[in-house]
Amino acid sequence: MSTNQWAIGIDLGGTKIEVALVNSSGLLHDRLRVPTDSKKGYKTILKQITETIHQLCDKNGNAIPSSVGIGIPGQISRSSGIVHYAPNLNWHEVKLEDDLSKMLDKHVSICNDVRAATYGEWFYGAGKNCDDLVCIFIGTGIGGGIISDGRMLTGCNNTAGEIGHMTIDLHGLECHCGNKGCFEALAGGWAIARDAQDMVRTDMKSGKILLAIAGNEIDKITAKTVSEAASKNDALAKKNIDNLADVLMVVQH
Amino acid sequence: MSTNQWAIGIDLGGTKIEVALVNSSGLLHDRLRVPTDSKKGYKTILKQITETIHQLCDKNGNAIPSSVGIGIPGQISRSSGIVHYAPNLNWHEVKLEDDLSKMLDKHVSICNDVRAATYGEWFYGAGKNCDDLVCIFIGTGIGGGIISDGRMLTGCNNTAGEIGHMTIDLHGLECHCGNKGCFEALAGGWAIARDAQDMVRTDMKSGKILLAIAGNEIDKITAKTVSEAASKNDALAKKNIDNLADVLMVVQH
Question: For the whole model, what pTM was predicted?
Answer without folding.
Answer: 0.83
